[in-house]
Amino acid sequence: MPTLQLRAETECGSTHYSAKYIGQAAQTACQLVQQGEHAGSSTYPHRYNNYEGFEFEGLPGPFYEFPILASGEVYAGGRPGPDRIVIDETCREAGEITHTGAGGNSFIGCSGTE
Q: Which of 20, 25, 41, 93 has a Cα-to-Cα distance from 3 of 20 to 30 A?
């Protein structure tokens, strides 16, 4: 199992996520991607096509998105909320994105994601 680097905390809209929580969510997403499984009966993690054109620290992709929750719980299925962590297929953390403040079903970057 790949080891993930601890990323900095982030803000998605008005929601703050600690570095520890981001790391936990990324680790869960990584395990599910590596096992070819999903959280509960959801479709997450699933392929993220990056239609918005984020740079994601220069990583080439492919990318996977996985919900991050304002409750601080690691996503296990159900309603995903607006915020996501993005990892690549080798489990490197690419960034965090949100539907909050974006038009339609698109995303904007959370703090630290360009």
A: 41
CATH value at residue 39: 3.10.450.30
- Classify 113 as helix, strand or coil: coil
pTM equals: 0.91
> Would you call 46 a catalytic residue per the annotation?
yes
Could you tell me if 4 and 92 are in contact, meaning their C-beta atoms sit under 8 angstroms apart? Answer: yes
Q: Do the domain assignments include residue 54?
A: yes
Task: For residue range 10-34, list pLDDT tens digits in order.
Answer: 999 999 999 999 999 999 999 999 9
Catalytic residue among 46, 52, 55, 73: 46
- How many domains does the chain contain in total? 1
Tell me whether residue 16 is one of the annotated catalytic residues: no
Q: Is residue 78 part of a domain?
A: yes
The Cα 21–Cα 2 span in angstroms is 18
